[in-house]
Every structure is written in C-alpha cells, then in structure tokens.
Amino acid sequence: MSKTSWLRGLTLLLTVCASSAQAAVFSGVWDPKFGAPFVTDLPFGATNNLGWRGTATWDIPDTCLPGGTATVNNAVDCAGGAIVTSAQVEFYNFDLGLDPPTVATLNFNPATMSISDMGFVGGQLAHLTTTSSNFVNPPENLWQFGVAWDVEFSLFFTFNEVGFADGPHLGWRQCHYDRTYATHYDEGGSYCNSGFSNPNNDPDLVPTLHITRVPEPGTLALALFGVLGLASRRVRAAIPSPR
Q1: What sign has the CA pseudo-torsion 123, 127, 128, 134?
Q2: Which stretches within the chain are classed as H helix?
Q3: CA-CA distance, 76 to 64, in Å (whole number)?
Q4: What confidence score (pLDDT) does residue 18 get?
Q5: Under a CB-based contact definition with an 8 Å cutoff, are residues 156 and 145 in contact?
Q6: CA separation, residue 216 to residues 16, 29, 64, 95 (Å)
Q7: How far apart are CA 130 and CA 113, in angstroms?
Q8: 19-33, 106-120, 215-229 — which is least confidently predicted?
Q9: How many CA atoms, within 13 angstroms, populate the side-chain half-sphere of residue 243?
Q10: 108 and 133 in contact (C-beta within 8 Å)?
C-alpha cells in the first residue's frame, strides 16, 4: 500500500471515529483504604479484614449533560440513554498494607444495573443511583475472611438517598433450603440471609468514589488529525519535485 493510500485510509477511520462520538464516558474508582464493607452482619465470624476496591464506567448522552451543577434524571432528561458499561470489584486483605494483592475478582453484568438519578458538579459527574446488579459468586475460596462458598455478592450505587452515603455499596446474600438457617422467606422456597455495606454499620467504612471523564473518540481523533497533518507534510517533503 502506498503512503498516499495509507493516509487516506487513516483519514477515513478518524472521520468515522469523530462522527460516532455521541456520549460522554465516565470512569469511577472507589478508594480501598476504608477496608471491608461488612462489620457485624457477615456470616461465619468474618475477621473484618476483607477490603473491596472497584471500578465502573458509564456512558451518558451528550444531549443530557448539564453545563454546571445539577441533578439529572435518566428517564426524564436522557430518555434512559445513560447506561452502565462495566462494573468490577476486587477483594483483598487490607491488613497487608498499601496496594495489597487481589484475592478474588467479581465481574458484574452491567446490563443488570439501570441508572436513575445522576449528580453533576460543574458539569462533572459526581454521583449516581443505580439498581442492584446481578449476584456473583467469588471464583476463589474466601473462607479465611469468613465468607462461605455459597455467599454471593451484588453491587449498586446511591445518590441522595436517606440512610445511605453517596457512592457504591456491596450487597451479599446466602440462601439455603433448610429452615434451620432461615431468616427470610421468598416465594421460590429458599431462605436467605442478606446484607449490604452501609454507613449505619460504621461511618469509617464508607468508600470514596472518584469519577473522571474519559477523553471522547472525537477528541482523540482531533489530536490524531494534527499528527496526520504533520505526517502528510513530511511525506510531501520527502517526495522529490518533478524536474
């Protein structure tokens, strides 16, 4: 392929990328230094040293982004266009100091988490509320942290809800078909113990959510167009002029 053909192909690719940028992508992480989400309600006598750190991404249509500080309702202001695109939690032993290794990873199905309200500060996404994700069983054994093999976890976010801190919350449940262990009954015939991380248990264990906006494809395309222009000038300069 000639240099001219290569440049034309790259130009077309960048044009497509620039024209497809219709949503803002935000990435969130929560600070693991606050430690475990469970204090007294995790079964089997947990030692309270199971920390959890997580990441998530959200796509929000450009048309419903406020210019300043505001609360945006996804259904009313965005026609339901704001979506969760990824959600992950890593467990670790927070007694091991800074940056401890991951002992188990939970990957939640983002399609199971619906966004309702979103809080913006200066045009920057700061908080949001979602429904609870699907339940996931850790792929690794967590008995050392008091987590039985049949304990499952879910993830959800809250914003401006009474009794909750703004940010992510990790839920758990353990279901049995034996009445000896039952505390709740559902129509499916299973009996479940359940709970979730809540500042009512211990305000010091509230995870801090940090959200940043990811550069849009259009912004990246503009930067590459600049590089492309420089490259094309160099190509033209390298081609000898006809005599």
Answers
A1: positive
A2: 3-19, 74-77, 217-238
A3: 10
A4: 42
A5: no
A6: 13, 19, 16, 38
A7: 6
A8: 215-229
A9: 1
A10: yes
In whole angstroms, how far apart are CA 33 and each of 23, 88, 164? 32, 17, 19
Kindly tell me the burial class for residue 71, based on how many C-beta atoms sit within 10 Å of its own C-beta (0-12, 13-18, 19 or more): middle
Strand partners, 212: 27
Question: CA–CA separation, 243 vs 235, rounded Å?
Answer: 18
Whether the Cβ atoms of residue 31 and residue 207 lie closer than 8 Å to each other:
yes
- The residue that leads in pLDDT, 5 or 194, is 194
What are 192's strand-pairing partners? 175
User: Amino acid identity of 14?
Assistant: L
Please state, in angstroms and rounded to a whole number, the distance separating the CA atoms of residues 179 and 202. Answer: 30
Picking from 26, 37, 40, the residue whose alpha carbon sits closest to that of residue 155 is: 37
φ and ψ at residue 134, rounded to 5 degrees: -65, 160
Residues in the chain: 243
Domain positions in the chain = 25-238
Contact 204, 221 (CB under 8 A): no
Question: The whole model's pTM is what?
Answer: 0.75
Residue 22: count other Cβ atoms within 10 Å of its Cβ.
13
Q: Residue holding tokens 């991404």?
A: 57
What angle (nearest 5°) sits at the alpha carbon of residue 101, between those of residues 96 and 197? Answer: 75
> How far is residue 16's CA from residue 217's CA, in Å, rounded to a whole number?
10
Structure tokens at 166: 């703004």
Average pLDDT over every residue of 62-67: 93
